[in-house]
Amino acid sequence: MGDGGTITLRLLGSWDAAVQGARVQTGTRQQRLLAALAIHGPRSRHYLAGLLWPECPEDHALGSLRTAVFTLSRRVPGAVECRGGALGLSGAVDVDLHHLLELLVRPVASWSAGREDAWVLDRPGVALLPGWYDDWVVDEQARLQELYVNAVEERAELCLVHGDVHHALALARTVRDAAPLRESTVSLLVRAHLRLGNEAEAWRAFQGYRGELARELGEQPSDRVRGLLEPLRRR
């Protein structure tokens, strides 16, 4: 992750803010405002007031927003700036979420096994604002999850194609934990185990998927997934 800003804002794994390395204590209002600006970018005051205090009358919500901005100007000076009628994060703020999004939209072939892969393998460490249940946060959590699962699965597939099977297996397990009902992921996991000669592990991965699928959706694995294990069944 980058360190270009004098203010660092952490939204992944947990919420945290620091100024030149020193952690800053902020209230819930200030935390939510900084998170909203990091996720949505510069927005009008009316938009932010409605987003953060949707059940309050507009004048009350705007008052809460003014209080949050004023408090941040004291606690984290320089973090928020006015842009005409909008508020936005200043260029001094370095946000971990932005670095993760930049990675996930990059070609997976350019990822570094020593840096990027190690980062995405720490799945709890890339969870967006765990424990936050505001609608605008939940929507972004779902969007990030989809980007994450697609990119890591693609990276695992690439490793498998190039013969880096152990690496592919680690990535596939991470995706399986994030999306246990995803057919393409269990297929990848089974193929990796079979490439390594771990037939029992391949069966275990398939059986776990079949049980989860039956419990959650009342369905059975597709012929495509079952077909991966057909040679073992014949034996």
What does this entry look like structurally?
With 235 residues, the protein is α+β, with helices and mostly antiparallel strands. It is built from eleven helices and seven strands. The protein has helices at 28-40, 45-52, 58-75, 96-104, 116-121, 135-161, 165-178, 183-195, 199-217, 223-228, 230-234; strands at 7-10, 16-19, 22-23, 43-44, 80-83, 86-89, 93-95. The strands form two sheets. The chain has a four-stranded mixed sheet. It starts with 6 loop residues before the first strand and ends with a helix.
Structure described in brief:
It contains 11 helices and 7 strands.
Give a topology summary.
Blueprint: E1 7-10, E2 16-19, E3 22-23, H1 28-40, E4 43-44, H2 45-52, H3 58-75, E5 80-83, E6 86-89, E7 93-95, H4 96-104, H5 116-121, H6 135-161, H7 165-178, H8 183-195, H9 199-217, H10 223-228, H11 230-234
Parallel strand pairs: 1-7
Antiparallel strand pairs: 1-2, 2-3, 4-6, 5-6
